[in-house]
Amino acid sequence: MSDIIHLLPDTVANQIAAGEVVQRPSSVLKELVENSLDAGAQHIDIIVRDAGRTLLKVIDDGKGMSPTDARMAFERHATSKISTATDLFNLQTMGFRGEALASIAAVSQVDMTTRRPEDELGTKIEMAGATVISQDYCQCPYGTAIAVKNLFFNTPARRRFLKTNSTELKNLFQDFYRIALVYPKVHFTFTANDEQVFNLEPGTTKQRIAQLLGKTGKTDFYSQLLTIDTETELLSIKGYIGKPESAQKSPYQYLFVNGRYMRHPYFHKAVINAYQGLIANDVQPHYFIYFSIAAQDIDVNIHPTKTEIKFADEQSIWPLLYAAVRETLGKYDARPSLDFDQTDAPDIPTYDPRRNASLTMPSTGYDGYDPFKSSEQRTVDKEQRHESQNRNGNQETRPWKQETGIRNQDIQNWQRLYEGFQSHSELSQQQLIEQDDIALICQLDNKWLLCRTATELVLIDQHRAHTRVLYDHYTTQSGKQQASQQLLFPELWQINIDKAAIVREMLDDIKSLGFEIQKFGNTAFSVTAVPAELGDGNPIEALNDILATATEQTTNTTRQQKMALALARNAAIRAGQQLNATQQAQLLEQWLKTPMKAITPEGKNIMLTISFNEITRRI
Fold first, then answer.
1. Residue 529: alpha-carbon gap to chain centroid
2. How does strand 131-138 pair with strand 122-128?
3. The domain 205-331: what is its CATH number?
4. pTM of the model
5. Residue 546: partners with Cβ closer than 8 Å, 6 or more residues away
6. CATH number of 10-200
7. Where are the domains of the chain?
8. Edge to edge, what strands does the sheet with 236-242 contain?
9. How far apart are CA 76 and CA 71, in angstroms?
């Protein structure tokens, strides 16, 4: 039997290795820009066409390469960063394994020009599929320029797995952010399809954040950032965290260690826990946190993309990070302020020196008890009060009338509730929904609909019930143009550049919901009409919610369903909105027709029931 184990050809081995390093155009961008930074570049230009499919070019003013180094750079595992295995435990540079250029050249066509400042002539190399086409001397500026053309031209199966141009451009922006945020002193430009998207002048880290993110909706990142600065023996923690009020559903969250971006769910949890009690459960804060730690205490070589990093002592870092974030929030007084309900608050008169001061005895609401009166006088007052109640129709059967601390609206609600208990037949036929044998009693606290059946009370959350109604309407009408309402004055929807690429991709879906929007520059859209159901709601907040929900990483819902849910949430009746009797009955009737009336599309309970037997048992 012949031997069956053999060595792979270099071309096949290179393509396999490229699969670990080059997954999409953004992988190429990351590797080339990191090489430029390691070469000491202070000015880096990035040029892409078709989201990097046809062209991705990086030009730097770094130290360049000699003709021999330029050729060696395309060999596998050829590197200037490490010489021995021990060097792996003291890494100070971004790239070090010598795989990037070899992997990129294996799946694309590459043109490179490079020159050192001390050389008169530079070197030009052309490659295709890891094969050297030509190498010559040339005239070129000092530094290095690498153009990657026709990515995956020789591996069509992998090219087919690329996403749309909008998605791939978004990925390019994400990797660009991760680098630009670490090197604020480096001048970056980013040009996409012959249009300059970024021109980032050198500055501070906070200025770089503002340059990249600018404004998203009404959020001004520069004014919403709090400085975090903690020094310990183990590591230093610096950077910025967002104020609680700037939290969003799709926040910008970045962790860096020694100038390298990393994903670290364990440390992310520490930051989120520090905001506990300060933000709502459905949003998260922005943060840009930079760790500085001894190189030997981390391992950056556990993943091909080097975004997953192992720390020698994670358990000790977690409480330090939590305490640093919590201390920053407290230092800048980012705690939630006490928001007292001003409804029915006592009217405190202003001081007037021209008026004579006079004292009046405080009134009380505890069955007429007044500790300043004698026992004989209290007895007389009580008898007089009972006689007055009997003359007015024996109001003792309705004790809420005697509670001076209850608002008039509450008195009316509880009176209607009481009447509903007394007789089902007293309810009007308009309120009675025959098909479900459920009767509407009243609206409680402008938040809930209180209903009853023959055996139980039903409390319905009006906002969640209407959300379910609208969501079912939007999803059943999917693909059809929804009714629109023209705005008197157009609204400007300003978003970040990476999200603008996504919006352009989902523009047709947004318009099908009833919005009329048009492009207004690179990062803005003009909104001229909104869905009819949105009414007086804020169209910009609705669009931001739609965008954030549509980009959430969930696998059990389509993008159209996510968008329908976001619009339903924003167009639904709000908690605290007062409804008249007709509106209450209409909402109840619409909700009863929905097939999944017990829960919202997000899985939250819509109603609460309690049987009359349970009420009797408890009372």
1. 25
2. antiparallel
3. 3.30.230.10
4. 0.67
5. 510, 513, 563, 566, 567, 570
6. 3.30.565.10
7. 10-200, 205-331, 407-619
8. 225-231, 236-242, 287-292, 253-257, 260-262
9. 11
CA 48-49-51 angle, 5° bins:
80
Helix (H) or strand (E) holding 587: helix 581-592
Query: Each residue of 497-537: pLDDT tens digit?
Result: 778 878 888 888 899 899 999 888 778 899 999 999 888 88
User: In CATH, which superfamily holds the domain spanning 407-619?
Assistant: MutL, C-terminal domain, regulatory subdomain (3.30.1370.100)
Beta strand 187-192 with 43-49 is parallel
Average predicted confidence (pLDDT) for the chain: 80
Distance CA 105, CA 125 (A): 11
Rounded CA separation 363/367 (Å): 11
Three-state DSSP at 473 gives helix
Q: How far is CA 603 from CA 233, 296, 448, 476, in A?
A: 46, 47, 18, 19
The domains spanning 205-331 and 407-619 adopt the same CATH topology: no
Residue among 298, 249, 61, 260 at smallest CA distance from 175: 260
| Strands 43-49 and 448-452, bridge-based pairing | unpaired
Residue 61 in tokens: 């003013």
State residue 381's pLDDT score: 55
Where do runs of H (alpha helix) occur along 238-313?
265-274
- Asked if residue 32 lies in contact with residue 100, where contact means CB atoms within 8 angstroms, the answer is yes
CA–chain centroid gap for 134, Å, is 48
DSSP state of 301: -
Nearest C-alpha neighbor of 56 from the set 15, 28, 21: 28
Q: Which residues of the chain have pLDDT under 50?
A: 217, 335-375, 378, 392-408, 410-411, 413-414, 417-435
Provide the token pair at 164.
Answer: 């749309």
Pairing of strands 524-531, 448-452: unpaired
Q: What is the pLDDT of residue 306?
A: 66
**How far apart are the C-alpha atoms of 354 and 26, rounded to whole Å?**
76
Tokens for 594, please give them. 């929905």
In sign, the C-alpha dihedral spanning 269, 274, 278, 284 is negative
